[in-house]
Amino acid sequence: MTPAQKSEAIEVLKEKFSQYDNFYITNTESLTVAQVSKLRRACFEKNVEMKVAKNTLIKKALESLNSEKYASVYDSLHGVTALMFSESPKEPAVIISSFRTDSKTEKPVLKAAFIGEDIFVGDDQLTSLKNIKTKNELIGEVIGLLQSPAKRVLSALLNYHENGATASADTAAETTEAAPEATAPEAPAADAAAPEAPAAE
After folding, report:
1. Neighbour tally for 151: CB within 10 Å
2. Residues 6+ apart with CB under 8 A from 1
3. How far is CA 18 from the centre of its chain?
4. How many C-beta neighbours within 10 Å does residue 176 have?
5. C-alpha closest to that of 91 among 23, 38, 193, 34
6. CATH classification of 3-132, choosing from 3.40.640.10, 3.30.43.10, 3.40.50.300, 3.30.70.1730?
7. Which of 81, 5, 11, 6 lies closest to 50 in space, CA to CA?
8. Which of 95, 141, 148, 194 has the fewest CB atoms nearer than 10 Å to its CB?
9. Can you tell me the distance from the alpha carbon of 16 to that of 133, in angstroms, rounded to the nearest whole number?
10. 23 beta partners
11. Separation between Cα atoms, residue 108 and residue 26, nearest integer Å
12. Tens-of-pLDDT digits for all 201 residues of the chain?
């Protein structure tokens, strides 16, 4: 590779590292051409960009962007390296896990993953990465939590309205049935004798 080609490759890598907040560093050594093609196809279907690059070029690209930020990644740059760039923090982990199961192989091996500002080092981090919540999943959970109390309040209000209206109607009916009939007051008895007139002398 000529110096010009190296410079071009570094610029392409810098562009990818700047574009994505999440990238995985994997070892694809010993995979056949057919297996690598299958892996690339799986990445393409999930909107994950896969690039095989020399470790020295990857390190130079990262150093030129922010040497201190990516310092914890450098120790993982050894052997055959394939980078996976993704908007999703968990999709590459899902792809790697599924590929291993389908191909009955232990490759690709996860060397490291840079997620946002966090670094995950080692293949034993794959399960944790598969279970990371995406932004949309977290938003959905928050909305669900916010909606749950509101739904309970609305349900209580509806039950109160329906049951309260029924109870009021029943109470009114019972009151009407239990009320005594109004009767007109009796006239005073007319059997009292009028006083006798005095007898004439």
Report:
1. 11
2. 9, 54
3. 25
4. 8
5. 23
6. 3.30.70.1730
7. 81
8. 194
9. 23
10. 85, 114
11. 6
12. 899 999 999 999 999 999 999 999 999 999 999 999 999 999 999 999 999 999 999 999 999 999 999 999 999 999 999 999 999 999 999 999 999 999 999 999 999 999 998 999 999 999 999 998 765 555 555 676 666 666 676 677 777 666 665 555 555 555 555 555 545 555 555 454 445 554 544
Tokens of 171: 């109470």
Angle at 143 between CA 142 and CA 146, to 5 degrees: 85
Please identify which residue in the block is written with the tokens 């005073």: 188
Q: How many CB atoms lie within 10 A of CB 167?
A: 11
CA 84 to chain centre: 23
Q: Are 107 and 29 in contact (CB under 8 A)?
A: yes
Tell me the two tokens of residue 139: 């938003």
Token pair of 28, please? 């694809």
- pTM comes to 0.68
